[in-house]
Amino acid sequence: MIPQNVLTAEALVLQIADDIGDVLRLRMYQMLFEIREAEQRAYDLFLQRLVKGTSHLSLGQEAIAVGCAAAMDPGDLSFCTYRGHAHTLARGVEMEKVLGELMNRDNGLMRGNGGSMHLTSVKHGVMGSYAIIGAHLPIACGAAWRAQYKGQKDVSVCVFGDGTTNIGAFHEALNLAVIWKLPVIFVCENNLYMEYTPISEVTAVADPAAGRAAAYGLESIVGDGQDADEVYRIAKRAYDKAREGGGPSLIEFKTYRYSGHSRADPAKYRPAGELEDWRENRDPIKIYRKRLLDAGISADIIQQIEHKARLNVNEATEICKAAPPTSIDILSTDVYADGGWAWRN
Amino acid sequence: MAELTYRDAVARGIAQEMKRDPDVVFIGQDIGKAGGVFKATVGLFEEFGSLRVRDTPISEQAILGAAMGAAMTGLKPIAEIMFSDFIAVCFDYLANEFSKSRYMTNGQVKCPLVVRTGNGGSACFGAQHSQSVENWCMMIPGLKVVAPSTPRDVIGLLAASVRSPDPVVFFEHKSLYAVKGEVEEGEILEALGTAKVVRPGTDATIVALALMVPRAITAAERLQTEHGISCEVIDVRSLVPLDTRTILDSVARTSRLFTVEENPRLCGWGAEIVSIVVEEGFYNLDGPPVRITTPHIPLPAADALEDMAIPSVARVADTVRRSIEA
Description:
Chain A is built from 11 helices and 6 strands. Chain A is of the alpha/beta class.
């Protein structure tokens, strides 16, 4: 569930009385917009040398993060990849903590010990962003095993890219999840490119995740990752099934990343016009804005939401710029549970 | 006091902790219904059931990944990697995941788990089922590394490992499984990071681990009776945390240091101990510290070759004697 505090348009005219409804839909729109702004801001701050290291942006992929998070219960757990800013924000983690971590500030989510690729906020159910491909799929299985063993009702949602489907841990995790009937949901963001190589050139099946589902006795599920409502509905169905003891699901969402794999990648390998086509015709924010307008939500309310989203990112940016840099005091803390790094007496 | 094998001590140690804490669970390949390929976990499946003692496929990444996910959300898993050589196929979890998650998340994520694994040679299993790989783990910040040499320590150090809030790699020596030792009734709990003087002596300190401990003790007895050389033998027991105090104190008394390591020489744990003693106890030394190790070779399968490769009682005794008499 996307948290209440992002909802700005209080004066709602109830236009859409379906399974999602106006209230959630407007929150989802704000989150889509806010993530877009935040990712663009992260890029701009990098050019200003205020974000260092690397970053892997979800520009163009926002609807998967928003739909998946919106369908979750507060106690559900997210396991993300190094392309995890969007999923972390979508679970309600504070904007300034995410930007602060990217900017190596003391107010960052992990005070600078983690960085862009390892965003984690346990209190929001964001159980980590993992930068070794495939590692978090078995980990999500373990979290789901704990829920099953303790009779708890949370589900573990594990998001990964198309490239992950060709690494061994993907297959080990799927097999384990099925044989143990674990409440885990595997979500593949197929953005068509592994890193620099089209996923189709290096994968035995056309749908890198869904095409493997049958091998594990799972339903083959492919969804439009640009439509937050569709993501929400597919995810919700899988979560409900897992919560009721029906076991795991593997979902493949088709999407597209507007930027390169990481900040070092200019993405010159894409055919001419492909990016422009996705931006023009498959952009998740455009799709959602049109849906709201078609349903009779006023342009004024939509503008208010967009304004609030921009404001949140701007305010967070200023807070982070003013925040002190990472404290050198944490260099050797939390290596071990005693709080320090001592390995000998 | 009853005699117990090292093998049976494993099952007793796990059972002790599972009875104490319902959050302790156990997974691995063939550990449950089959009782473990080394028969070290017999009876646990029957006692604790299939949800707590869970057989897995041959999926080492899934085993350690699942253990981590369970640990970070509230359980205290024990995971078995059958042969320590197989750590190589799931090394990511040791090297990158549960070792680093606490640090990377500024203390948010905690992974209290134990990886039990059968380590070491002298069983003619060849190069991929015989290695001593404790140094693979010792070099990783965030891990603790333990290797017991006696049945009693198996129970006591396993209990300490399960109760440790940090991830622990627990190396059981395959060639010690059949060894018997005196073990008292009731709960047994030792402390991690404590080396043990298992034989007092005055002329030299021999530091050993796991299977090398009984060999070092036998060598020390031989040196005493045949040459009148009195050796103190220290069982390191825990490589991380490392009890350097016990070792430095011993060297201060004996003025000589020998390490007996089953691992191939390069970057073995003895190198770290030697460097600490040289840096901090140099003026106590009467001669150069000497490392007795397996050569820098893969382990051969044939018994005659394997026996030559791994430090033997004779090699330890000869090396110590020649070094002291030089």
